[in-house]
Amino acid sequence: MNDQRSRKADAQQRGLQSNHLTVPMMELRMEVAALSDVGYRRLNNEDSFGYDSKTNIFVVCDGMGGLAAGEIASYKAVELTLKTYNELSNQEMEIEDRLRSAIASANETVWNMAQQNHKLRGMGTTLVAASILRNRLVLGNVGDSRAYFLRDGDCVQITEDHSYVAEQMRRGRTIISDEASQRLRQFITRAVGVLPSVEPDFFVLDLEPDDIILLTTDGLTRYADANKLAHHIYMYSNLEEICRGLIAIAHEGGAEDNVTCMLLRFS
Which residues form the PPM-type phosphatase domain (predicted)? Predict the structure, then answer.
């Protein structure tokens, strides 16, 4: 079984793509499952995910730019983040610095591709990534794909969305829930590949047995808050079954966008 994993949905069919693996760690064992679905409204899947079990790097991306451009942006961002992080694994670097360099490399590649091909101009992608060394977890994010942390039945959103609405709310401004605000929720203020450089946010956690990490795109989170996610995740024990149930939540809401979720569980 190849340790490096990367999946994206066929542009011509709906269907699920999934992966499941149990990985031994220095002090904790980790189980991984991931699933991506094109949803009901899109013709192709612009989400991508990937991970490498040898170096413990996990990435979920949601492409922007429409059709092929968004799909290319997300796929290349996953590929370059994994590749660069792995290339730096033998160097004396903190895992946050490795992750920062990996995201920077992904940003540079997607940006250059868009500049060299006018058909790809304007493409970009959100990115949320988790890197792990022993029991230390570093999360990095750009855009509105999210990481949630689950412990003892609780679920907390760790990352902060880089979107117009989220930034207005952080400034204390009231957002009226109407059609206009719904459109504004899709306006991303920071993304991989839309500018020559990008500044991710980083978060550090110490892991304990039974902790769970969820990496997901907004195709799921627009239909479920943290409480709803926790209720579903703790209802089942099989990670792939949980992923299928999370996709079902998006389907019940209309699944207007592609949906991707990745679960990491520690024991």
Answer: 31-266
Q: Provide the number of structural domains found in the chain.
A: 1
Q: What is the pLDDT of residue 67?
A: 63
Of residues 221, 243, 263, 238, the one with CA closest to residue 37:
243
Closest CA to 121 of 203, 195, 226, 216: 195
The pLDDT tens digits of the residues spanning 185-236 come to 567 899 999 999 999 999 999 999 999 999 999 999 999 999 999 999 999 9
- The residues, any chain, with a CB within 8 Å of residue 50's CB and separated by 6 or more, are 4, 5, 6, 7, 58, 59, 78, 79, 81, 82
Asked if residue 172 belongs to a domain, the reply is no
- Is the residue at 173 inside a domain? no
Q: What is the DSSP string of 39-98?
A: TTT-SS--EEEEEETTTTEEEEEEEESSHHHHHHHHHHHHHHHHHHHHHTTTSS--HHHH
Tokens 């020559």 sit on residue: 196
pLDDT at residue 170, as a whole number: 62
175 in a structural domain: no
- Nearest C-alpha neighbor of 50 from the set 84, 19, 9: 19
Is 167 contained in some domain? Answer: no
In whole angstroms, how far apart are CA 151 and each of 112, 155, 209?
40, 7, 9
CA torsion 92→96→101→106, rounded to 10°? 140
CA nearest to 184, candidates 168, 164, 161: 164
54: containing domain: 4-8+17-160+191-264
Instruction: Give the domain CATH number at 83.
Output: 3.60.40.10
